[in-house]
Design a protein that fits this description.
31% strand, 3 helices, two-stranded antiparallel ribbon, 5-stranded mixed beta sheet, alpha+beta
Length: 150
């Protein structure tokens, strides 16, 4: 059984074989990076879709059927040609409590904690696929990006 993928990037699991893991971290974790307006509408749309998807998944009595209706792949091909199988869906809750950005002329960051009303929860969802030789954690945002482009 694969243990949940934590944001700390701990990838412990109980399989009786070793397999390297890869990451798809193109998604925004909404860290304190400043983003331009390019694609901000698409990001907002994807965030709304992701929020609705996670909410629906949590409420679904039959999680497998929910994933099938959402056309989430239960198998995908690994980089070595072996079939990778969906074994885990992980939802992680985070709260951004402040922002940190580079200070001018210093190696220190300028830190600004948020007042309580600005602290907001955000959730990320990751799907874990494994084969005999590989493990891949695919972020829901990457799946939604490919669906929205179609």
């Amino acid at each position: 059984m694969v243990k949940h993928h934590h944001h700390s990037h701990d990838h412990g699991h109980d399989h009786s074989h070793d397999h390297p893991h890869t990451h798809n971290h193109e998604h925004d974790h909404l860290h304190s990076h400043v983003h331009g307006d390019s694609g901000s509408e698409q990001r907002a749309e994807l965030q709304t879709l992701a929020t609705q998807f996670v909410q629906g998944f949590r409420e679904a009595k039959d999680k497998t059927s929910y994933l099938r209706l959402a056309q989430i792949d239960f198998q995908r091909q690994g980089s070595d040609g072996l079939t990778m199988h969906l074994v885990d869906a992980n939802i992680n809750s985070n709260w951004q409590i402040g922002t940190a950005s580079p200070a001018f002329g210093s190696r220190e960051l300028v830190y600004m904690p948020y007042p309580g009303e600005m602290v907001m929860e955000r959730e990320t969802m990751t799907f874990t696929y494994v084969s005999l030789t590989q493990r891949e954690d695919v972020d829901l945002m990457n799946i939604l990006k490919s669906i929205v482009r179609k």
